[in-house]
Design goal:
Elements (H helix, E strand, L loop, with lengths): L1 H6 L5 H22 L10 H22 L4 H10 L3 H10 L7 H9 L2 H11 L6
Length: about 130
């Protein structure tokens, strides 16, 4: 992150973590509602707001990290970018309310490996 601060560009490290945290929060809420542990009722918009936050932060994290001077952050951007595909597909494949709970869950969960890999790569090389 030091290179980004010295070069005047925005720090990219926190964006990948924020994008992953948004995805985890949204997936946890969706799974909790799907399992019947939580009822959102009139507050279903929270899941939609988290989806928008997830998509926006993921796009920003991928773009900012791709332009980083740090090779590990550029690698993280390449790992994170494919997560945008299932996120973009979610509104078009059907929702649990439309009778497609499994398809929705599988598409949402298919982004998990991209977030995990991006987080791992963003850490960069570590001394063992």
């Amino acid at each position: 992150m030091g290179d980004d601060l010295r070069s005047g560009s925005p720090p990219t490290g926190p964006w990948i973590g924020l994008a992953a945290a948004c995805w985890v929060a949204n997936a946890a809420l969706g799974a909790s509602v799907g399992a019947g542990l939580v009822r959102t009722g009139r507050f279903r918009w929270i899941h939609h707001a988290l989806y928008l936050a997830t998509t926006t932060t993921t796009l920003l994290a991928a773009m900012l990290s791709a332009g980083s001077s740090c090779p590990c952050r550029r690698a993280a951007a390449r790992a994170l970018a494919p997560a945008l595909v299932p996120l973009a597909a979610l509104p078009h494949i059907g929702t649990p309310a439309q009778g497609h709970p499994r398809r929705h869950a599988v598409a949402a969960l298919s982004a998990a490996p991209f977030y995990a890999t991006a987080l791992h790569r963003a850490r960069g090389p570590r001394a063992h």
